């Protein structure tokens, strides 16, 4: 999400976070998040009547919706997903004070949001939340943030003499949230001691005016958990525990849509390699909306594609540009001038090697093939993303293989739809998103103090 606080305007972008439900467990110097995909029946987000072709179409729509939310026009009706719910991949569950009991809302996990907000009692307008809103007036630990507080932004909203914030999602805005900036006690379980620990006075937005949200019937979602670069994010407010670093390792695509995984913060955020799997690092630009990477090119089977690297360059004045690592998007999205070269190279390889011809483009994905006997044992093109090395002396490579690029939809759906490339095109200049599917079986460590992204190939299902 490109955040631009509007009174704190935060533009909803993007960030597959498949949506995941997350529970937080603190260690003495870190924390762990349990993650559940949006496809989980527990969340009741994707209709039970969908077959897996329709499920993958829903996920593809999430990625495209994240793209269109950064552009100056709305997505076509065919790829629209419900605002917020349909443009993220992950959720979390928090525990906060509510008198003598705890309020435990499910929130979207969003690395593109710079603030955590939760719908509160007295809201008008509101969206329905099963279990009710946060009753802040009943909490003895809730405190309003004053207009003089350092956390109150310069473009604040004055709400009855207290600091308020308004957030806009989409470009142009499709949804808005306005409310009180408050402090509250949040409780987390320490995974090492098994004790519940209370962290007092964490700032969040108590949302009392929420427009444009379509969470649907029996909705459990109450807001957003922001994990981007901002003094208001929990990443910063709990920096003694997070150390401004987090890691994750997403399982292969088919397991990813049905299996829990974890996100680690602070001392728990550790990745490691060995003699054959070396940990590599690349430069990362952390903004209050996303994490941008410096990409210099793409190769297919060792052949460099004729892509102008300028198409991937970050531009602080144009949120359509840049190469974003985005767990909020299920599949990757490439700017058209890069995608066309990638598609042509893959089509040529499969045609020359096996005589395969792509099926006509359909609504599901742009490049699909009919299933041929023994296709699992065949070799497939290897795609390499080239990144500028941190010292600008060369390039660092990230290798993507068949299981990160293709999915046989018929295997998981019983429907003859075929083998599809989980990468989609968007009009130039982008932005380009490296989605969750392509990040599978790679361990990532975001280290904000060093402006580095570390990664290493790993079998994440284990």
Task: Please explain how this structure is put together.
Keywords: Aspartyl protease, Glycoprotein, Hydrolase, Protease. One of its GO terms (molecular function) is aspartic-type endopeptidase activity. There is one protein chain. By secondary structure, this protein is mainly β. Helix content is 12%, strand content 34%. It is built from seven helices and 30 strands. It has helices at residues 52-68, 234-237, 239-242, 253-256, 336-354, 402-405, 409-413, and strands at residues 21-27, 30-36, 91-93, 96-98, 101-103, 106-110, 117-119, 143-144, 157-159, 162-169, 175-190, 196-211, 221-226, 245-249, 261-266, 280-286, 291-293, 295-300, 303-304, 323-325, 332-335, 368-369, 383-388, 395-400, 406-408, 419-421, 423-426, 432-434, 442-447, 452-457. Strand 4 (96-98) and strand 5 (101-103) form a beta hairpin.
